[in-house]
């Protein structure tokens, strides 16, 4: 017992024996240094911003939120495609080059959605060009599908605000739906603009390569066209994500932090789009899923996309929390006022308790003095 220096050391020895720790390590300085180094390495890893962003995402039920959004997005994207072609079908049918670029944009954005350029898909583009909104049935269907598409925007707003530890946006319901409708129209216009830029850039590239005597079917032309397409897609995704984080969610985010989070999210989305064919192919190779492989592949892909969107929001949220910036000043002011009121109420309760205690001691002193015959 003397070796361990008393009963406290003996208890420590017994606890270590029960835990199964090797006895030769108890007083080994080298072992203590190794444990300390491991603890420091773990603390350093946990302090890295990507790790803290992922933990923030997981603690705020990010996986549950992205799963719900992915399930809803599967229906919303079909509704948006139908309503969009019903509204802009005449423009696309009147310009085959623009229509082809538009189909290319959608096929790159959502792999497996369109049966386009030899790839398998759920929707036949020829059927989309025949969509009409005329008549009562078409109008009613358009309204129902439009509400389905707007529902995804509303759910995305609530999910992003949840990652910032904020409640739902306190705005009139009708105004929120009007904002969602405006954003939906804006996203559709952005797709058209991206398609038009793709057509313009392709034509400009063909002219430029012609000046240098490079054929359109050469490897250089294909690589350059692919790079331009990816750059346009990255720009479109960055604008869309920035709009989702700031305008749709009603948050006050500094431009620099918004740009960084949107670009990171757009890069992740770009990687997913490049790997989209591999995801669908993996689902198709499973014999149990082959009959509906495309639908399962879309669900998996939408789940990853929604997780990437929310991870970008988590990156912004963690950075703003580190800098002490409020994403919603009104909510922050209301919380400070509530904390002030709660603190004032607590101080009043403590003061009342102290007053009662002073009165109690005073009564005891008066009683004791009265028994002793008064003050001496």
UniProtKB/TrEMBL annotation:
Q: Which residues cross the membrane?
A: 69-92, 133-153, 181-200, 220-245, 257-282, 288-311
InterPro entries reported in the protein's UniProt record: Virul_fac_BrkB
This protein is called YihY/virulence factor BrkB family protein
How does the protein's chain sit in the membrane according to the entry?
Answer: Multi-pass membrane protein
Tree of life domain: Bacteria
Subcellular location(s) of the protein:
Cell membrane
Instruction: Write down a Pfam family by its short name.
Output: Virul_fac_BrkB
Q: Which organism is it from?
A: Leifsonella bigeumensis
On whether Cell membrane is a keyword of this UniProt record, the answer is yes
Write out the entry's keywords from A to Z. Answer: Cell membrane, Membrane, Transmembrane, Transmembrane helix
């Amino acid at each position: 017992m003397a070796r361990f220096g008393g009963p406290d050391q003996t208890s420590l020895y017994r606890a270590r024996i029960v835990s199964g720790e090797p006895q030769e390590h108890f007083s080994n300085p080298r072992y203590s240094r190794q444990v300390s180094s491991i603890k420091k390495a773990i603390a350093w890893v946990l302090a890295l911003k990507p790790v803290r962003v992922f933990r923030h995402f997981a603690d705020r039920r990010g996986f549950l939120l992205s799963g719900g959004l992915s399930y809803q997005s599967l229906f919303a994207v079909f509704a948006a495609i139908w309503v969009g072609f019903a509204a802009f079908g005449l423009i696309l049918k009147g310009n085959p080059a623009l229509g082809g670029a538009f189909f290319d944009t959608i096929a790159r954005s959502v792999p497996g959605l369109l049966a386009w350029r030899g790839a398998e898909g759920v929707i036949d583009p020829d059927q989309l060009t025949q969509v009409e909104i005329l008549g009562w049935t078409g109008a009613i269907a358009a309204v129902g599908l439009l509400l389905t598409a707007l529902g995804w925007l509303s759910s995305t707003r609530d999910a992003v605000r949840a990652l910032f530890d904020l409640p739902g946006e306190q705005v009139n319901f009708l105004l929120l739906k009007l904002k969602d409708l405006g954003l939906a129209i804006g996203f559709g216009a952005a797709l058209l603009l991206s398609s038009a830029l793709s057509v313009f850039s392709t034509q400009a590239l063909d002219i430029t390569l012609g000046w240098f005597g490079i054929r359109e079917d050469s490897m250089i032309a294909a690589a350059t066209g692919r790079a331009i397409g990816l750059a346009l897609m990255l720009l479109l995704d960055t604008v869309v994500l920035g709009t989702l984080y700031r305008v749709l969610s009603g948050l006050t985010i500094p431009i620099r932090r918004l740009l960084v989070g949107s670009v990171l999210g757009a890069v992740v989305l770009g990687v997913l789009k490049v790997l989209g064919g591999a995801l669908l192919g993996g689902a198709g190779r499973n014999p149990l899923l082959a009959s509906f492989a495309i639908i399962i592949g879309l669900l998996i892909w939408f789940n990853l996309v929604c997780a990437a969107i929310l991870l970008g929001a988590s990156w912004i949220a963690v950075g703003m929390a580190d800098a002490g910036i409020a994403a919603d000043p009104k909510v922050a002011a209301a919380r400070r006022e509530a904390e002030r009121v709660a603190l004032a109420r607590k101080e009043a309760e403590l003061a009342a308790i102290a007053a009662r205690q002073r009165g109690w001691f005073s009564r005891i002193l008066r009683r004791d003095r009265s028994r002793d015959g008064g003050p001496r």
